[in-house]
């Protein structure tokens, strides 16, 4: 099934929490982090935290071991493995950083499932200090998007993916996310694409408030179980539509699979812009990536 590209956010999507928060809290940096929180951009602040860990004698291995303790739900693991087994092209677009994401995925045996990870770059310098850089250089090449933080515009990432797949063959995108910075890429999705926002999180709020701007078909999820079932049902749905259009699907397969897909879609209601417009705005999950809990 080469006709599906699944793009995942990472924090609060693949993992239930936030990888930056996890390192800050688990490695004893919460107090300093909160003191500096409003003095610099988040990306720069995380780089500052890595400087602090280095000054305390913490190594790259210490940080990696901390990240290995970050939990990943078995149903999320199963969903990723199943999507890969179906032949989907799996990618990540995240405002975390490459070291954090790759350390967690590698520990859980998922790193090789993804063809591309677009995130803030990080590297260990010659002195052994982990450095975190912005994906977009805010000085030399600012992205100019007022919906996204200065270090990364995910909308540009989706635009690049859409342009690349349009040149080769018709592919559908399933985008899965939760945060405010997932709204911009959601606006770049086409009518043939699918959007899976995490219910009651900032992305869901923005969709409710700006429903008519969303072209993609929306399927919300609240739990890891819904994440898995919705994703696999959408993959089945696309598979049925593509095979049916090609005229090569057997009547028996089409009947059985369509029943499964229809049941899934009805259980997790497809939210059209009109449906979303009538929905009451949900309470925000809280200021995204704001103050670290001690």
How does the SSE layout of this entry go?
Blueprint: E1 4-8, H1 19-26, H2 30-36, H3 42-55, H4 60-68, H5 74-85, E2 89-97, H6 98-107, E3 114-120, E4 122-124, E5 130-132, H7 154-168, E6 172-177, H8 183-187, E7 194-197, H9 202-209, E8 217-218, H10 224-246, H11 251-267, H12 273-278
Parallel strand pairs: 1-2, 1-6, 2-3, 6-7, 7-8
Antiparallel strand pairs: 4-5
Helix pairs in contact: 5-10, 10-11
Number of strands: 8
Model regions low in confidence, pLDDT < 50 over at least 5 residues: 250-288, 290-294
For the terminal residues, how far apart are their CA atoms? 45 Å
Overall shape: globular
Strand content: 5-15%
- Let me know the average pLDDT: 84
The run of helices and strands is EHHHHHEHEEEHEHEHEHHH
User: Rg from C-alpha positions?
Assistant: 20 Å
Q: Tell me about the biggest sheet? A: 6 strands, parallel
Secondary structure category: alpha/beta
- Share of residues in helices: 40-55%
Strand order of the largest sheet: 3-2-1-6-7-8
Number of helices: 12
Overview of this protein structure:
- This protein has helices spanning 19-26, 30-36, 42-55, 60-68, 74-85, 98-107, 154-168, 183-187, 202-209, 224-246, 251-267, 273-278, and strands at 4-8, 89-97, 114-120, 122-124, 130-132, 172-177, 194-197, 217-218.
- Mean pLDDT is 84; it is low at 250-288 and 290-294.
- Helix 5 (74-85) runs parallel beside helix 10 (224-246) and helix 10 (224-246) packs antiparallel against helix 11 (251-267).
- With 294 residues, it is an alpha/beta fold.
- The strands form 2 sheets. A 6-stranded parallel sheet has the order 3-2-1-6-7-8, sandwiched between helices.
């Amino acid at each position: 099934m080469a006709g599906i590209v699944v793009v995942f956010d990472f924090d609060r999507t693949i993992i239930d929490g936030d990888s930056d928060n996890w390192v800050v809290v688990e490695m004893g940096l919460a107090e300093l982090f909160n003191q500096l929180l409003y003095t610099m951009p988040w990306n720069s602040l995380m780089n500052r935290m890595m400087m602090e860990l280095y000054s305390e004698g913490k190594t790259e291995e210490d940080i990696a071991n901390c990240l290995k303790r970050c939990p990943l739900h078995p149903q999320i693991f199963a969903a990723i493995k199943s999507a890969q087994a179906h032949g989907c092209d799996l990618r990540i677009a995240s405002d975390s950083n490459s070291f954090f994401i790759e350390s967690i995925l590698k520990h859980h045996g998922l790193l090789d499932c993804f063809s591309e990870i677009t995130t803030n770059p990080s590297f260990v310098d010659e002195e052994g200090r982990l450095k975190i850089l912005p994906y977009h250089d805010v000085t030399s090449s600012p992205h100019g998007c007022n919906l996204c933080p200065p270090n990364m515009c995910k909308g540009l990432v989706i635009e690049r993916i859409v342009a690349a797949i349009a040149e080769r063959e018709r592919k559908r995108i399933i985008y899965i996310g939760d945060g405010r910075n997932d709204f911009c890429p959601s606006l770049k999705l086409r009518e043939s694409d699918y959007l899976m926002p995490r219910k009651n999180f900032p992305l869901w709020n923005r969709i409710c408030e700006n429903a008519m701007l969303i072209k993609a078909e929306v399927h919300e999820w609240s739990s890891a179980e819904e994440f898995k079932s919705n994703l696999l049902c959408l993959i089945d749905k696309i598979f049925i539509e593509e095979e049916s259009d090609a005229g090569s699907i057997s009547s028996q397969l089409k009947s059985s699979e369509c029943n499964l897909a229809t049941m899934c879609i009805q259980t997790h209601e497809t939210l059209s812009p009109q449906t979303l417009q009538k929905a009451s705005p949900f309470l925000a999950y809280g200021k995204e990536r704001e103050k670290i809990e001690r």
